[in-house]
Structures are given as structure tokens and as C-alpha cells.
Amino acid sequence: MKYSILVNEGPYTHQASDSAYQFAKAVLAKGHEIFRIFFYHDGVNNATRLTTPPQDDRNIVNRWSKLAEDHKLDMVVCVAAAQRRGIVDEGEAKRNGKDATNLAPGFRISGLGQLVEAGIQSDRLVTFGD
Amino acid sequence: MTIKKFMFVNRKAPYGTVYALESLEVVLIAAAFEQDVSLAFLDDGVYQLKKGHSTKGIEMKAFEKTYGALEDYDVTKLFVDEESLAARGLTTDDLCVPVEVMSRVQLGKMIEDQDVVLSF
Is residue A120 annotated as part of the catalytic site, yes or no? Predict the structure, then answer.
């Protein structure tokens, strides 16, 4: 089956992004396909490479990046939600005159059309939120 | 393009969190993709439709007008949970747009009939 996943909460405060990650791993382990993982609302904070949790805690951001790399996943961060919350790639930095970038590897910034397309193209769109 | 039934389930008050505002943004995009879009309002989500948002004191943008503009995007299926309205002492006269009031059972059937349900 073709799945897409919507992550609506940021890392650490809510379990939603942990659950989404574990669900994604389970989906792949069962041999299903993930069309896209979309990050919206505070979910965009899953994509900041500046995250530094204590050493004995899980690194949620790096975990996503590795999953994307291992399985060639398409992980998309909503541009409007990202702009509000300061998640920036090189293109956004240039457009909005910012002096730094923080988008973690494996993520890309794009529009909400990508979420709607995921809903259209996938057999299941599964939401993880509060 | 494939047309799917997208339902947006709104359960939260309009300004305590950003969910209502950012949910509306997805609604407009889904409509632009010419999908079969409907909205359901439950729990404190019914407050999103209450007439007369006044947000000056909290320094936030009032987005009540966006609900009125949904019609221009051919989004006309707005369903409101009867129990949620009644529990908050509201009637359809208090709402800023025409809606269809439904029982929880009817709403449940409606949700079952969807291809994609996004709950914010």
C-alpha cells in the first residue's frame, strides 16, 4: 500500500513526531511504500539541524534525516509554516534576507500543494498530531 | 486529475492555537486542486464560525472573513455538530456563514464516506 504521513507537532514536546517516525519505520518494514512525509504546524521544527538533545536522549531530527537517506524518502516542510517558525534553507535565506540556514539533510521546503497531492496519490494519509 | 473527498475536521477554538488558521490554508489549496472539499466543526471548533471575531486585544489577525470567502472557492459543504453547538449555547444565528447542522451519527457517516480526513 502507498502511504503518506502528516506530522503536525514539533519534536520532544509531543510524542506525535516519535509516533510518526515509528509508524514510518513499521510501514517500510512491512514492505509498503511511503509516498511522502509532510511536516506542518510546529511539525516543521522536526527539520532544524541545530537541535542538540542530551546525549542519552534520542536525536529526533537526525533520526528523520537517516530514515530519509536509508529509504530515499521525500520529506517536505511547509513553506508558510517554516517561515513563521524560522526553518530556513538557502533559497529561503536569500529570498527573505536571513543570515543563516538550518534545514536538516533529507528535508526540502515546499508548498501545501504537496500535502494535498500526497492525499490524492496515496492510499492512506495518516496524521500524527496533538 | 483524480478527485478525492477531502474532509477537514476542525475541533479547536480559532485563536488559542494556530490550528484553525493553518487548517484554512490547506482547505484553500485543496479547493485550488479542485478536490471535493468539506469542513466539519466539532467541539470548540464551532467557535471558529462565531460571528464577530474581535482580535485587536490579542494582536492577532482576525480570519473570520475567510470562512465567508470559502464560497468563492466552491467550498460550500460546512457541517456543524449539533451537540457541540448546543453545549456552548450557540445556534446557527450566531454563525457567520450558512452551515448544515448534523447529529454525531450523521457526521460519523459523513466522515466514513471520505477518502482523506484531516483533523486539525
Answer: no
Range of the domain at A12: 2-128
Task: Give the three cell numbers for residue B115.
Answer: 477518502
Q: What ipTM does this complex have?
A: 0.92
The values of phi and psi at residue B85, to 5°, are -60, -55
Where do the structural domains in chain B lie, given as residue ranges?
A: 5-119
Other C-beta atoms within 10 Å of B41: how many?
26
Q: A120, B4: Cβ pair inside 8 Å? A: yes
Q: What pLDDT, on a 0 to 100 scale, did the predictor assign at position B1?
A: 82
Chain A residues whose CB is inside 8 A of the B23 CB are: none
* Superfamily grouping for domain B5-119: DsrEFH-like (3.40.1260.10)
Q: Which residues of chain B are modeled with pLDDT < 70? A: none
B97-120, pLDDT tens digit by residue? 999 999 999 999 999 999 999 998
Fill in the DSSP letter of residue B95: B
User: How far, rounded to the nearest angstrom, does the alpha carbon of residue B117 sit from its chain's CA centroid?
Assistant: 13
Number of folded domains in chain A?
A: 1
